[in-house]
Amino acid sequence: MSKGKDTKPHIGIFGRRNYGKSSLINTLANQDIAIVSDVAGTTTDPVKKSMEIADLGPVILVDTAGIDDDSLLGQERIKKSILQISQIDLAILVIVNHVFESYEEDLIQAFAKADIPFLIVQNKIDLFPIDQEKTNRLAARLQVPILNFSCINQKNTSLLHQEINKMMPRNALHFNSILGDIIKKDDVVLLVTPIDSEAPVGRMILPQVQLIRDVLDNHAVVVTLRETELERYLKVMHPKPVLVVTDSQAFEFVNSIVPAEIQLTGFSVVLARQKGNFDAYLKGTPKLASLKAGDRVLLLESCTHHVSCDDIGQVKIPNWLDRFSGKKLNYEMVSGLESIKRPITDYAIVIQCGGCVVTQKQVKNRLRPAIEAGIPVTNYGLAIAFMHGIFDRATAPFKKKI
Question: What burial letters (b/e) apply to 200-209, b meaning 16+ CB within 10 Å?
């Protein structure tokens, strides 16, 4: 399962081989979830486990391979470990016997680049004596807490829980309301949810479920229907909805039916505001109008799923964009949270999916290289709205709320 399948806060455990990272995870989780061995390099691919931390709630612990494996296979493992940095909310760097050299320095630079807070656990204190003066000097230089720890006698486990609780970013713990600043108590929100070949059998897709829950959490009223019932229902509906939210693929049709005095937007647009860099999206989306023949377009799909003939990212958006631009463009898609193979500057624009199954931190870190390089970014919903001439209407409910 990719990290994108769980939006609970993620804590990554990093360090050299045989430093007790897996034992630390087992100690924190109070169960054997990671393979423990005296053989260096036992952990190969990242291992993820959900657990509860007192006063913090459910989190995901991510065990990574050792960063000091110089073999060819080891280098691939290290790449996977480093990739986890963009996907976590808090890092724990494990050291032993006061050793802090280039491997550790490189890691903390990577943490800083991704804006990831971290703390240091000096493990195996049952085997190596503590030099508190060295520990204090390192803590002062790095300006981070260093906790002396032993998985054997579980010394300082409760203190580690406290430090994790203290350092976890608050925005990773609290689910911000999607529409809380747009709607008020007793307002009616109408969700238009097409059922096509991409819709899962017997259930709603995640963005629809999230919106339903968010409206209810705000003590408002949610009405859900298919686009085929929209026109008839609007004629008899009372009170009228203050907001209509639809699937991006139905924008054009729904826009033609919903009166101008009723606000209209899309599921992907509200997720873009909640999880992405909305300012960057608003700035980057109009660049779709100036693409040139042969330009390379990068589509980022945060989850992996079966591709149908109506797939939004791999089929519909490229077809719409070819027609909209009148040019032949080159499309590349990266699914899940895998690394992007080309330099980001090879692309004329980046189009991110709604990000319903990933965290805000992950979406922002995913887009950071493009934004820093001056590459325009947008998302599925905003791009579709722009290509169908309703970008201003779809973003109007939120522009004054940014």
Answer: eeeebebbbe
% of the chain beyond a pLDDT of 90:
54
Task: Assign 244 to helix, strand or coil.
Answer: strand
Structure tokens at 227: 């686009």
CA dist., res. 239 & res. 119, Å (int):
53
CB atoms near residue 173 (< 10 Å)? 14
Quick count: other Cβ atoms within 10 Å of Cβ 42?
A: 16
Q: Does 277-393 carry CATH code 2.40.50.100? A: no
Rounded to whole angstroms, the Cα distance separating 100 from 80 reads: 22
Q: Is the pLDDT of residue 3 over 60?
A: no
Q: Is-cis flag, bond preceding 239, omega within 30?
A: yes
What confidence tens digit (pLDDT) does each residue in 312-325 have? Answer: 888 999 999 999 99
> What value does the mean pLDDT take over residues 238-246?
96
- Cβ neighbourhood burial of 261 (10 Å; 0-12, 13-18, 19+): exposed
- Record the pTM: 0.69
* Dist. CA 372–CA 357, nearest whole Å: 24
**CATH for 3-173, among 3.40.50.300, 3.40.50.2000, 3.40.50.10860, 3.90.228.20?**
3.40.50.300
Q: Closest by alpha carbon to 70, among 37, 42, 41, 101?
A: 41
> Other C-beta atoms within 10 Å of 329: how many?
17
* pLDDT per residue as tens digits for the range 247-295: 888 999 999 999 999 999 999 898 888 877 899 999 999 999 999 999 9
Cα–Cα distance measured from residue 251 to residue 128, given in angstroms and rounded to the nearest whole number: 64
Place of tokens 């002062």: 140
Q: What is the CA radius of gyration of the chain?
A: 24
